[in-house]
Design a protein that fits this description.
heterotetramer; A mainly alpha (86); B mainly alpha (501); C mainly alpha (247); D mainly alpha (122); A: 86 residues; mainly alpha; 3 helices; C: mainly alpha
Chain lengths: 86, 501, 247, 122
């Protein structure tokens, strides 16, 4: 395995771990922030796939704006930190 | 003929103008929205009258498959006309109703109009996705604009299902593009057969799943009841008569052009056969849709599930895939749009007059407003498909084509007949309630010149098409041969001509 | 739906995808690329209109478009109609937000702490310059109108947090104006060249800053539109947010 | 494992499936929206990965571009599609969050299954 592949593998695994945390973590705000982390990892993968345009857009829109939007909307909907789902 | 781009661009430009006008003169923006839709209707009728052969309009000056192309033929022009007509009447109806809506409301209707026409005219698989998303976003916002929690809940349910559908659609695009190297529908039609057949089957299943959501096919239609109920009545009418129509159009187009190059030639991928999947989904949808409509005490939900039943019947016709069944499907779609819009308009006014959408509490309203009651019966007979009313011809042809086909399709005859009986029972039950002896004094129904114009036009259309189907018949007769890929006026050869091959 | 059913469903889907990908029947498949296909090869070599070049050099003129970033060329030139649709999606979403959340009680905005309010203008200025660079160089370097506009909107969000700036109707106007100009550019192409959204400004030198005027103009419009849209739309989330904090 | 293409593809598919699991098991609207976002990111990765192959360059032409070397560049079309798809995803997310806020104002909860029906009047 080349060093590049190891990098790709670790980014992919980090992304998947973040995603698994998003669907299982109790805190809603934590899930929103982890979603941003997943987007950032995806942006890194786009960069690895020679798609710099997509990577920039994903980083700015997916990781930046979407995450802040999630947090703002969550505060606006005035919900507590607990998830009553479980 | 290249002016057909204005069918998409004009409402879009007007929608962009609304925030500006809404700031200066809200009333003007509403009026102009209506006029834009009206002008589009005139344009589409004009194009329909002067139409001779199918043609391709290229965008950006790039020939397909490099650029995006619009494909204009009898099928797309007819459906564009119906969508324009329905939306124009829907805007008029909303303008005349007591609830005052913000300019944004009309702007979203214009965007819905843009996107439905885009879905109908485009010849590019990804462009279809973009327009489907615009249609989705504008209809969620419109459904929730009723300011009732039921509408918001319906919109959210629709949003979740439709987002899953769009993910499936994008995955299918990824598979198809990376195997065939093109996004143009006409080219994919050839490329799909060069694909590994298991891969092609996977892509086709993903696309079908997403189109079933647009077309309200079971089991992708759980959102239908609450969305139709919570939406303002004008929007419920448009969902049934325009949005579902565009979904059915996409289904027709994709299943004939993309999946099978022509009629009766729907592709088999190894042991996987689309025809039987479509047919059985249609059967299940008819049964569940009509059964749910039968049990509803809520008039709007009842109409919603009745639409689902109709869409199931049309899916069955698409699956039978004979020249006759296509004719029947197109006819039934058009007449269903007209009759359902009429029914939703009347029900909308009854809901606002009585404050409830439970039809068992509408007893006796028809006695005081007899014309309204008669219009309701006309609409109901139009949907049901009783002879001398518009719905008859489509249903009759579909049953006829099911008779001629062999195998399981023959079952379609019984299913459709049984569904017709159920439809007749639940509509006449409601109509009977309207003319029953009232328990208490029925309220006054708020009508007006605009309302009467809209409903009279629609009711007349139902009766005239039922008695003299000839003009519509002449137009629809052209469609089966144009859908077929192998002749010179077919879809695929038209697009290939534009490619310069 | 309970978890076991969900896992079962995912298992079925995964098996189906696995079966499709491991099928040994003949025919083309994704991830196993044949020679690069016609469409994207023509985009890369700029031979869509049939003119062949042996090689393309920086500074060359008379190409079908002079953008060296091919993704930008695809987004704005070859498939510009998709991008108009994309802009419309955002427009519809923001309109929907306006319809659902707009027009409520009077808003009070509380100022942020001293650190943010003193740093905010400088950061915002920096973001503004960067984003202008991003969308003006869209045809040369990665980036373009969408990330550029989103960056401006982020800067604006910072201004809202830092000052008592209220997002006003100006944004709606700007958005409306930018959307109309996009359609207008398309219609000018239609009138001058016969096809909607066709490049009517000609192509210049490949690789120069103002070599592809058409793309630069469209990206500037998109940048302004996205910035205005996101600022006004997200403003309507933020405003209420701050107000609730105040109460 | 030596070819990263499959790594990208499997990663993208796994992300979609995790998102689907979230959509199927949660009733909380906020979580539904987050899970749909995961699925969107996954499908975007999938689109680019399906047309990617090892060792290609970004589709930005250098000083000299030779037609014969076109194969050494990444396919620009899927990247353009994903660009569009990301922005569309943002629009959908924003509207969905607005719907969520509205729902919360109406019902006081973020859970979906509240079956209570209220009268509609127009």
């Amino acid at each position: 395995m080349s060093p590049n592949n190891i990098l790709i593998l670790s980014v992919t695994l980090a992304m998947l771990a973040g995603a698994a945390a998003v669907v299982s973590i109790r805190s809603l705000i934590g899930a929103a922030i982890l979603e941003g982390v997943v987007s950032l990892m995806a942006a890194l993968l786009f960069l690895q796939m020679s798609a710099p345009d997509v990577a920039i857009t994903q980083a700015v829109i997916g990781a930046g704006l979407s995450t802040s939007l999630f947090v703002i909307a969550l505060r606006r909907s005035n919900s507590g930190q607990e998830d009553s789902d479980e | 003929m290249k002016y057909s781009i204005f069918l998409i661009v004009a409402p879009m430009a007007m929608a962009f103008l609304v925030p500006f006008l809404g700031h200066v003169m809200p009333a003007l923006s509403k009026g102009l929205s209506f006029l834009t839709a009206l002008a589009g209707t005139v344009l589409s009728v004009f194009l329909l009258i002067t139409y001779k052969t199918p043609f391709t309009v290229i965008m950006g000056g790039w020939i397909p498959p490099f650029g995006i192309n619009l494909h204009v033929d009898m099928l797309s022009l007819l459906f564009a006309t119906v969508v324009y007509g329905a939306v124009t009447l829907g805007i008029a109806f909303q303008l005349s109703s007591v609830v005052v809506k913000k300019p944004y409301f009309y702007m979203l209707i214009l965007l819905l109009l843009t996107s439905l026409n885009g879905m109908i005219l485009t010849g590019d698989l990804f462009n279809l996705f973009v327009f489907m998303e615009i249609a989705g976003i504008s209809s969620w916002a419109l459904i929730a604009s009723g300011n009732k929690t039921a509408g918001v809940r319906g919109a959210l349910q629709y949003m979740v299902v439709a987002s899953l559908a769009s993910v499936a659609y994008l995955a299918a695009i990824a598979i198809i593009y990376s195997s065939t190297g093109t996004l143009n529908m006409a080219q994919i039609s050839g490329g799909l057969r060069e694909m590994n057949s298991a891969m092609a089957a996977l892509a086709v299943l993903l696309i079908l799943a997403s189109l079933f959501t647009e077309m309200e096919i079971f089991p992708f239609n759980s959102w239908v009841g609450s969305a139709y109920r919570g939406a303002p009545s004008s929007i419920s009418g448009l969902l049934s008569s325009a949005v579902a129509l565009a979904g059915a159009y996409a289904m027709l187009r994709i299943s004939y052009i993309v999946f099978g190059a022509g009629m009766g030639n729907i592709i088999r991928f190894g042991s996987f056969n689309i025809t039987s999947i479509l047919f059985w989904m249609g059967v299940v949808t008819v049964v569940t849709g009509e059964a749910s409509a039968f049990t509803q005490k809520d008039a709007k939900r009842m109409l919603a599930w009745s639409s689902v039943g109709q869409m199931g019947m049309i899916l069955m016709a698409i699956a039978i895939a004979s020249e006759k069944s296509i004719y029947g499907a197109v006819f039934a779609l058009i007449t269903h749009s007209i009759s359902k819009l009429l029914l939703f308009m009347i029900v909308g006014r009854l809901v606002s007059a009585t404050g409830t959408s439970d039809w068992t509490r509408w007893k006796g309203i028809g006695r005081k407003n007899s014309i309204l009651g008669i219009f309701f019966i006309i609409g109901a007979l139009g949907v049901t498909g009783i002879p001398l009313f518009a719905g008859f011809w489509g249903k009759f042809t579909i049953i006829g084509s099911a008779f001629k086909s062999t195998g399981s399709s023959y079952l379609g005859v019984y299913i459709i007949l049984a569904a017709t009986v159920m439809e007749a029972v639940y509509f006449l039950r409601l109509a009977h309630a309207l003319f029953e002896e009232p328990e208490r004094k029925p309220g006054k129904v708020n009508t007006g010149i605009v309302f009467w114009t809209c409903t009279t036009l629609l009711a007349l259309a139902v009766v005239i098409i039922g008695v003299f189907p000839a003009p519509l018949d002449r137009k629809i007769k052209k469609i089966p041969s144009e859908l077929r890929g192998d002749n010179t006026s077919g879809y695929i050869s038209t697009v290939y001509k534009a490619m310069g091959r | 739906m309970n978890k076991i059913a969900a896992i079962l469903m995912i298992g079925i889907i995964s098996y189906g995808v696995y079966a499709a990908f491991s099928s040994t029947q003949p025919g083309s498949k994704p991830f196993k690329r044949k020679a690069q296909n016609d469409v994207s090869r023509a985009y890369l070599a700029k031979t869509v209109n049939g003119k062949k070049h042996s090689s393309i050099m920086r500074g060359m003129k008379g190409l079908e478009n002079s953008s060296s970033n091919i993704v930008t060329a695809v987004v704005l030139d070859y498939r510009g109609f998709d991008t108009l649709g994309e802009v419309t999606v955002l427009f519809a979403a923001i309109a929907g937000i306006g319809l659902l959340l707009g027009g409520q009680k009077k808003r009070v905005i509380t100022p942020a702490g001293p650190i943010i309010s003193s740093l905010a203008p400088w950061i915002a200025l920096f973001i503004l310059i960067t984003s202008a660079y991003v969308f003006l160089h869209g045809h040369l370097t990665p980036g373009g109108g969408f990330p550029g506009g989103a960056m401006i909107a982020a800067g604006f969000l910072l201004m809202v947090l830092g000052f008592r700036t209220k997002p006003s109707g100006v944004f709606r106007m700007l958005e409306s104006f930018a959307g109309l100009s996009f359609v207008l550019v398309g219609l000018l192409g239609f009138l001058k060249k016969g096809s909607f959204l066709q490049n009517f400004m000609g192509t210049g030198e490949m690789g120069s800053l103002f070599g592809s005027l058409f793309i630069t103009v469209l990206y500037a419009i998109i940048g302004i539109k996205v910035a205005a849209e996101l600022s006004s739309g997200f403003g309507s989330f933020v405003k209420e947010d701050l107000e609730e904090e105040h109460e | 494992m030596n070819n990263p293409v499959f790594l990208f593809g499997i990663g993208a598919f796994a992300l979609m499936m995790i998102g689907l699991y979230g959509v199927l098991t949660h009733k909380n609207i906020f979580r539904l929206i987050l899970s749909l976002g995961l699925m969107e990111t996954g499908v975007n990765l999938f689109i680019v990965a399906a047309s990617y192959w090892d060792g290609v360059r970004a589709p930005i032409l250098g000083k000299i571009f030779n037609v014969k070397t076109a194969d050494s560049y990444a396919d620009p079309l899927p990247q353009a599609l994903v660009l569009t798809s990301i922005v569309i995803g943002l629009g959908v997310t924003a509207l969905a969050l607005a719907l969520m806020i509205k729902y919360r104002e109406g019902t006081g909860t973020l859970e979906m299954e509240d079956k209570r029906e209220e009268e509609v009047e127009e």
